[in-house]
Fold this protein.
Amino acid sequence: MSVLRLAKTILRIGRMAEPAPDAPSETPVGDAALTGSVQVRHVDAGSCNGCEIEVGAVFGPVYDAERYGARLVASPRHADALLVTGVVTHNMLQPLIRTVEATPKPRVVIAVGDCARDCGVFKGGYGVAGAVSDVVDVDLEVPGCPPTPDDIMTALRRVTRQ
Amino acid sequence: MSLLDSALGAQFLFVLAAVVAAVAGPPAYRNRLCGSLSAALGLSAALAGASVLGGSTTTWSLAHPLGAGLGPLAPLTLAPDRLGGFFLLVVGFVGAVASVFGIGYAHGAAASRTAWTAYPLFLFGMQLVPAAGDVVTFLVGWEVMALASTVLVLADQAQRARVRSAGLWYAVMTHLSFALLAAGFAVLASEAGSTRFADIAGMPVGEGTAGVAFVLLTLGFVTKAGLVPVHVWLPRAHPEAPSHVSAVMSAAMVKMGVYGVLLTVTRLLPDAGRWWGLALLALALPSALYGILQASVASDLKRLLAYSTTENVGLILTAVAVSMLTRHTGTADVSQVALVAALLLVASHAAFKTVLFLAAGAVLSATGERDLDRMGGLAGGMPVTAAAFGVAALGAAALPVTSGFVAEWVLLQSLIHGDVRTDRLTTALLPAVVAVVALTAGLALLTFVKAFGIAFLARARSEGAALAHEVSRSMRAALILGAAAVFGLGLFPGVSASAAVAALGDGTVPRGPSGLSVVLPVGLGGLQLPTLGALLDPTSLLVLGALLTVPVVAISWALARTIPRRAVDLQWGCGGVRVSPRMQYTATSFAEPLVRVFGDTLRPTQQLHVERAKESRFVVVGASYRQRVGDVIEDRVYRPAARWLGRVGDAARRVQNGSIHRYLAFSFAALVALLVVVVR
């Protein structure tokens, strides 16, 4: 897309993001050094992809988490926080633990969705190793099946403190 | 007795002392004694070279001590001129540094009596060549250098069979070179009626004779210099020789070929025909490209360095060829700058290639490995070697602020400004030369990123590499000395370029035809080319750059201190535990895209063998992959020629079958034939 067309499109569509709600009143989570800049690695530990759609929406143009300083990155080595969705399946058990260990400290682990919190509808399934908190230390949980983008956003804003 | 005379005399003294020490000295002290004496031998040559460049002259006759009655061989004279002085300086410095390295490095066969006898003789022969004042002395020095280096190449022949083959290739090629040189000088000497270079230089030569002499001499010299297609001995002899010998061979001995070409085209036959430059360019430019292409795909470190030598000599002779081309096309200014570029390239290559070969030797002695694919992570165990290799690699990749950058900068300046409208061919050719030089520089960067990165960074790929530790003090000293020279030549190009101009001039203030100086020192040891309007002052730029970056870095560092240090528990293996050293890039895989792109030239042979399970052919049990990148010229030219020679030899065996009767018959026939001829 040429620069001119891009500029025209921007002019035509204008601002899509919803007006920023007030900063969350809950206590902030994680190190104060992360204020305003949190690199987030998303880990799908065995999700049904419902949560992924909501996470995708959070980083889309309407909710636009980047304006609060949260940004998705491609490797735990670049990340400050992990966004874990889904139950922990047996196949993802070790990779999840290694991903958490490969994230530099101080780190924040956010369990997103009911499955990540307590296995949700998959509780007792033969492929399920447990909830995220059974396997690694979790700093923040977002309930919901799936959680709304607003909920996920609130959790991220508690980490970015914006 | 002047400084020059004492320095020349000291050479004879030191070579004698070194040989005596090698033969009669106690074996426990042989390395130290012979190494120190060889270093002194090199230093005295460097001193002699420096004083010649400073303006001293002398003529030594060697015929007196040998007695009269040498007949056609007389007069044996040593009369180094300024050009010879420059090469004496370079060769002497390389010899001295390599000797210091040899003290700690030489072991086994390389520390034997034979090897330590041959080594100072090798240096001495090499130092006779640029000091020679006549053809015979030149050839004697040349042959001493060739024979002694052959002995040194063969040092390890009892351990490895490949050494013998390398020695054979080297001996054949070096004597081919000698034969060509003897023929070429014979043509000139018979024309001049004298073997003195001064007489030959002052004599007018017919165009045809000059052409014949030029072709013979150039072919002889480039065989020593290692240009394509007579480069085949380089990638064999350099890797197999002990590393301090490889360093001298590659950094200094091949320069004798360059010296010979410069001697021919600037002194003996200054009125070059127009096709001479083109012929030399046709040899030199493909050599530069082919050499670096082979180097970029080589995984044997010393083979890589040997091919890089072909590249650098190609660049040096490209500069000489451009100088010859532009001399008569109204751009004599450019011609002089190109010659300065050639000499700067000589000095630069001598400096960085010494360090590279010595560092390769240090790695070899610490790990026992020459194959890059089995090195890795050496920077941790061998920080000094790694730093020295890194500096020299910067020089080889022609990056600032090293010697290589300065030399290639001057070369490119001369190429860019050589564009004049008086000569169509030159005008059309020079942009192509610029393109090839640029491609060469790019491939050189890739090659040395590979060499340094694979060998010294990341994790060890073999047990030897994992256990590597820093080498002895004398070896480290040699590496640091060489690396300092690489930086020194890069930081103060004004000094080295002035020396190069002094080597080319006749002692008067050097001025181009336009009346401007060819080179002017500027700033903090910087370099100005007034005739081309170009300026380079690395030290000032470095100071300026430091003034700009130091505050920024300091402030960033101070600010970064407020942020807590981040600790990581586990190396990232993409969720698995795949942190085995085999996951890393190897030299082969790093060069794979190049092998693909230049597949038509390199002609790699690849074998992929996949082992499948018995139960199902869709289950792979294991796979092995082999790749060999040979030398196209060797495979297509030399091997068929060797086979043909073998067939001729076999055919000749029918005549000479070992039967005494037949030989008696041959003698009888010969006698009869002789009588018939005489009586008639």
Q: What stands out?
A: Chain A touches chain B at residues 31, 33, 75-77, 94-95, 98-99, 101-106 (CB under 8 Å). Residues 90-102 of chain A form the longest helix (13 residues). Residues 113 and 143 of chain A are 5 Å apart (CA to CA).
